[in-house]
Amino acid sequence: MSEFEKTGVRVAVKRNEAIPSGAAKSCQPVIRLKTLTSGVGKVRGHKNTEFQKNGGTSAGQTQQVRHVMCKYKYTKREAGALRTLFQGFDISLNDDSISIDQIRSCLMSKLFSRALIFNDPQFETSTEGIPPQQISNQKKSEPGIPNVKLKLPSRNWLIFLSVTGSFTAALLYDRYAKKKTQQKWCKLVSHLADETLDTAAMPRKVTVFLSAPPGDGLSPARDHFREYVKPLLVAAAIDWEVIEGRKEGDIQKGLAEKLRRMRRSSGEGDQGVVESDDKEAGKAAVAEYRRTHDIHEFGGIRGDIVLGRHTWKEYVRGLHEGWLGPVDPPPPPPTEPASADSNLTESAVPEPTPQERHSGESGETNPLPPTHPSDPPPPPDPPKPAPDILPFISPPQYPNAPTPLSIPSSFDPSTPIQFPHVLGFLNTPTRIYRFLTRRYLADAIGREVASIVLTSGIQGWDYQEADAGRGASQFEDGQAAETAGSRAVQSALEHEELDWQKRIRKRDKGQEGQERVWLDDIALDPRIASRMTRFAALAREEEERAERIESGTEGPIVLEKPADRDGL
Amino acid sequence: MDNLNANEQRELQNRVERKQMKEFMNMYSNLVQKCFEDCVNDFTTKSLHSKEEGCVMRCVDKFLKTSERVGQRFAEQNATMMSNAGAGPLGR
């Protein structure tokens, strides 16, 4: 028995008959068969199979012998295949004729139908006198323990599984960590949402600037805002207003227009201008309603959130245009070249036709007086801006521009928020890396937005850690501080420009002299630069609280319920 | 509206007033129903617990302030639409 255990396939064939003597064909009643790869047999192939009777030929000839061991030799190929396929199985065959072909076909069919594995002694005792067919069925129906071997999948499968598995694991972990990080920052600010707000008061409102990244559409910018900035604003119950730009220059125009409107409402420029835009008229109506019904806007610090380097450049340009440029549209350069700078004239040369058409229209439909005593540049244009209107002021004109009367001593604090966005097939590794490490981005942006939301302080752009001891006198520090501030404004998020496509960074032929806000360096006027402010970094105690929230030792701040405070 | 005589005017006014009254009562009963269901949960005594009372106060406060705020926003919306309707023909 142990011999069979060691070596390969065994086949038991049962038949209750005496064994006739002699020939291999008659070796019928119960046969065990095993494969051998080496042995005495000289013969090869199934025709020349050699059977050996167990226990000697004499016993087999004379008695009712139940078990006969038949060793037969396969070819090497057959033996190998059979051994690997049928290792460890016992097979019962119930056939009278015992040709090797039959054994083999039987073997195959039985094995393939997951035939029963059983031992001969059991077989012998339990199946006394039962017809062979029945035995076979009976044995088949009993569930045996299949001898399934555990083994590794093939090499290719292993490679495939490990690559996909590790990518999936990295992705899932990143998203999990990102979610946790965002929850941390949301919990840090959520107490602001629980503060009671008077019915006649409006919540704090920040302005969000987002524009389509170079070479792409607006939706990535929107998604970025929705993904990383919005959750915190919502958690802190802060309202926001979005200034969107679909193409280069939109943000600049939008912000400048907003600032000009503000200046006009405080008494500058042409007061006769009527808002033609439906949206603006509606806004004015709402403001009027709020004024009459004593609904007051939020009085504290508001703040500007600027997404990405490209938007930041436009934002700074828009600030200059809005504050230093004229309130009313300047005259079109071709008609009055004397008033315009040479640069502006040059830049306006490629498109004189719409401007001329524009001015012609205005002369017909809007007979405004050519000059205004209050404002040096004469505004013959209608208030409605032409779609391709030029900026009201160009960077070389900054130093000569008059300082507006209504300019505040410091502007709303602004924060550039990073907006990593890279395009292109060859950048796939970078993109995959960023795709799998968004948790760090979420953490960095969360910290920035939390500092906006919590507003632990406001500082000029020239503020540096070393200045902390000197306090509020930084504005008077003179040239050094001013240049430091300008540098800080100019270099904010500068690394993002490396992600921009070459196509974007190349100027169109024939328009080399024209201004490109995204490509030109940020030009700063000291008057504007010194008034720009930013939010102080998150206070250390808040940072520590965020850490405690992350580790789960502390929850968000819970405010007292008003009723509890009243002692009810 | 101008071509109605005095009687009809009075009738109209009456109806409007009745309608307003009805709306107000509706709102009031809604408020009472809502806050009662939310806050009052102990019927072993006929007086209100301090906890229940606080809850009712807050509930009513919340309801009224919400409707006030929503009303303001609606009025603003109305003002916007009015201004657009007025400025529309001139602006274009």
Question: What can you tell me about this protein's structure?
Answer:
Chain B: It is a peripheral membrane protein. Chain B: GO terms for molecular function: metal ion binding. The complex is a heterodimer of chains A (568) and B (92). Chain A is of the alpha/beta class. Helices cover 42% and strands 8% of the residues of chain A. Chain A has 21 helices and ten strands. Chain A has helices spanning 2-6, 57-62, 76-86, 100-112, 120-126, 132-141, 155-189, 191-194, 219-235, 250-265, 278-292, 309-324, 342-348, 352-365, 428-436, 438-454, 479-491, 502-505, 526-531, 540-551, 562-565; strands at 10-13, 31-34, 68-71, 90-93, 205-211, 239-245, 304-307, 414-417, 458-460, 533-535. A four-stranded mixed beta sheet of chain A has the order 3-2-1-4, covered by helices on one side. A four-stranded parallel beta sheet of chain A has the order 6-5-7-8, with helices on both faces. In chain A, strands 9-10 form a two-stranded antiparallel ribbon. In chain A, helix 7 (155-189) crosses helix 9 (219-235) and helix 10 (250-265) packs parallel to helix 12 (309-324). The longest helix of chain A is centred in the first third of the chain and has 35 residues, at 155-189. Chain A is elongated. The model of chain A is unreliable at 1-71, 89-98, 114-127, 335-387, 467-475 and 563-568 (pLDDT under 50). Chain B has 92 residues and is mostly helical. Chain B has one domain (6-86): Helix Hairpins. Chain B has two helices and no strands. The longest helix of chain B has 42 residues, at 50-91.
